[in-house]
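Hi Y.,

Following your request, here is the sequence exactly as I used it, all 162 residues.
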Amino acid sequence: MKPILLFASLLLAFAAVSATEYPKMGPDLYDPQSDGSKQIATALLQAKAEQKNVLLMFGANWCIWCRRLHHTLETDPAVTSLLREKYVLVLIDVNMRNGKKRNDEVNGRYGNPIKEGLPVLVVLDAEGRPLVTQETGALEDGKEGHDTAKVAGFLRQWVPKR
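Below is the corresponding structure, written out as tokens. Let me know if you'd prefer a different format.
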């Protein structure tokens, strides 16, 4: 019985690793199979119902700065609170892999924000109108992460007007 459990555990562990796009980077942040247009449509319905804006974060699973910004969005109390109360976050995968540009039409719809580099943020109002595109180098701390005060300040600047 023990060899069967060990084999099953190893099989599950392998499946989990093989499902990760860049295993050395850790778990995927961006779903490689996602349809950005559908993600945004769902987020806009939620934003309208909850009187929030939508924060699009364009990036890719290989992008260390995408991971660093995501870490800030998830762990800093001030940033997390603002995000939860005022925004619906959508992670848009714009990786190009095996000759396919993911969510290229979404990138085009919002004026090619990825020309600014990754990650890049776009704030939409609840109607889907773009309010601002923000390259995130300006939000960095000059070391190896993002300045939480700068990120919180950016989010405060673009909260929905009621």
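The beta strands are 53-59, 87-93, 96-97, 100-101, 120-124, 130-135.

Thanks again,
Q.
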